[in-house]
Amino acid sequence: MARGKLILIEGLDRTGKSTQTEKLVKSLGDNALLVKFPERSTQIGGLIDQYLTNPEFLLPDQAIHLLFSANRWEIAESMKRSLLKGQHVVMDRYVYSGVAYSAAKDTKGMDLNWCLQPDKGLLKPDLTLFLTNSDSELRQGFGEERYECTDFQDKVRGQFAAIFDTLEDPDYKSKHIKFLDTTHKTIEEVHQLVRAVTSDYIQGHADVNEFI
Ligand code: DGP
Ligand code: NA
Ligand code: NA
C-alpha cells in the first residue's frame, strides 16, 4: 500500500493555520489525521503550555527550545506508523516554527543552525503550505500568549524567510513548499486553495522519504 503524505501547514500566529488544517483534514476524510504542534496534552506539552501561558514560568531559551523539539519526537513514531498504514498526516506547525520562533530571540549562539540540530532525523514533510497574511487588522489582534506581539512576530517572519532562503535546498523548495497569500481571502477561499494544492500534490508527486 502507498504510504500517506506528510502535509504541513505553517505560518505566523493568526494566519489561519488551525482553521485550515482542520478543514483540510475533514475534506480528506477518514484517511487523514491531524497533528498539532505543540501538542499540549503530553507531559512535555504541559510544560510548553505553562511556558506559553504563564509569564512567571521561566525557562532558559535553550531549554524551552529542546522541549518543543522533544514534543515533536514524542509523536514522531506514531506519525510514522500512521503514514505507513496509508493515512495522510496533516500537521499544524512543525520544524519550521521550531527553528523560526527560537532563532528570533537573539539569544547568544541560538542561530538557525543551532536551532535545527535537535530536530535532525525527524521526517521531512512531503508538502508544506506556508500561509502569509498582510491584513493590518490581524497585526493588532494578537492573544495573550508569550510570543503574540507585533515586534516579536516581525522577527519570526524574518527567520521564516531566512530558513526558506538558506536552509532549504532550492530543488526541494520548488517542489515541496508552496507559499499561499491569504490576504483579503475568506476562510472558504483559502480552503479551496489549500485543497487544490494538496490534491494536486497527492496525485502527482512522489514521497520525499528524507529526514530533516
Ligand atoms: P500555537 O498553539 O500554534 O498557537 O503555538 C503556540 C506558540 O508557540 C506560537 O506562538 C508559536 C510557538 N511555537 C510553536 N512551535 C514552536 C517551537 O517549536 N519552538 C518555539 N520556540 N516556539 C514554537
Ligand atoms: Na498562538
Ligand atoms: Na537568535
UniProtKB/TrEMBL annotation:
Keywords noted in UniProt: ATP-binding, Kinase, Nucleotide biosynthesis, Nucleotide-binding, Transferase
GO molecular function: ATP binding; dTMP kinase activity; nucleoside diphosphate kinase activity
UniProt entry tagged with the keyword Ribonucleoprotein: no
Assigned EC number: 2.7.4.9
UniProt cross-references to Gene3D superfamilies, sorted A to Z: P-loop containing nucleotide triphosphate hydrolases
InterPro entries: P-loop_NTPase (IPR027417), Thymidylate_kin-like_dom (IPR039430), Thymidylate_kin_CS (IPR018095), Thymidylate_kinase (IPR018094)
GO cellular component: a single term: cytosol
Domain Thymidylate kinase-like: 9-193
Name of the top EC class for this enzyme: transferase
Biological-process GO terms, alphabetical: dTDP biosynthetic process; dTTP biosynthetic process; dUDP biosynthetic process
Domain of life: Eukaryota
Pathway in which the depicted protein is active: Pyrimidine metabolism; dTTP biosynthesis
Pfam families associated with the record: Thymidylate_kin
Family statement drawn from the similarity comment of this UniProt entry: Belongs to the thymidylate kinase family.
The protein's name: Thymidylate kinase
Species the sequence originates in: Lachancea nothofagi CBS 11611
